[in-house]
Amino acid sequence: MKILGFLIPLAAIFFFSCQPSNQTESAESTSTLDVIDEAVKMIPIQTPSGEFQVYTQRVGDNPSIKILLLHGGPGMTHQQYANFKDYLPQEGIEFIWYDQLGSAHSDQPSDSTLWTIERFVSEVEQVRIALGLNKDNFYLYGQSWGGMLGIEYALAHQENLKGLIISNMMASLDDYEKYAKEVLGPQMPTEVFEELMEIEKNNDFENPRYMELLGEHHYPYHVLRKPADEWPAEINKMMGEVNPEVYVYMQGYSEFGITPGASLAGWDRKSDLQKITVPTLVIAGTHDTMDPAHLEWMSEQLPNGQFLLCPNGSHLSQYDDPEHFFPGLISFLKEVDEMKN
Description:
The protein is α/β, with parallel strands linked by helices. The protein has helices at residues 8-13, 117-131, 145-157, 173-184, 190-201, 208-217, 219-222, 233-240, 244-250, 292-301, 317-320, 322-340; strands spanning 40-47, 50-59, 66-70, 94-99, 138-143, 163-167, 280-285, 305-310. It has a single domain, classed as Alpha/Beta hydrolase fold, catalytic domain (Rossmann fold), CATH 3.40.50.1820. The model is unreliable at 1-37 (pLDDT under 50). This is Proline iminopeptidase.
């Protein structure tokens, strides 16, 4: 799966059948996860193209642990964290669902100049300020593309962070592509992988065989390890809300790397990990689209890094290995909280 979205790959599943929603939905109707008693806040974001609104929704209340969740894609939605509500509030942990600009309940301008890493980092910083998050309470969690954005934010503004969680995201897109093509692809039947590579070679991504083959031989093994008809409703809903304009511009079409010409091509922060000194948890799934050995290596490069392996997990380990994912995440949050207080 594409490393980016963190769900990156998931977006592609429905890319040709889904259209982005036209505009920000009202705050009254944005509680798509049926948590209607928590605070929804539309935050104004200043950009080179003017002011836009992004959606946030707070769940829980903890003065010292507030987690801002960065979804994958780019162009996916906060629905990827729907089941956090089933585990974190019971532990007294506050988290904030957040749709990045271009996604779901946030504004969706048609302006490719906005889809840059630097602008998204600026957006996260503006959201932080608007929500009153600071080094005494601010944990940033990013999965897939969200993990990439989390790394970039930490390199620019780590003085504002109490802790960082990088989930299911490698530190190099070239290394991701190598893993996808040299390790994951060959795990498929030979004829299947060869057909997929031929489609990519011909740039024939509208060929229905591409998604058909991935849906049978890739997604249920490395994105979410459940049969397609057992995928959670929230994940299916997220897929239906993907904004392909953002996703394709930044990530491209391929599930085995970044399409040439996509704006994220060549991204690599391996040599910069040592600069991130805040407590950082790196989460991997044994069956992930991201190389778990690479993610463990990342945790070792971070001066205050920890590693959590979800042995039954894939790219969405919170759904297919919650037994390891949530206890590990909760333990890290509480450990840092006790250390800092």
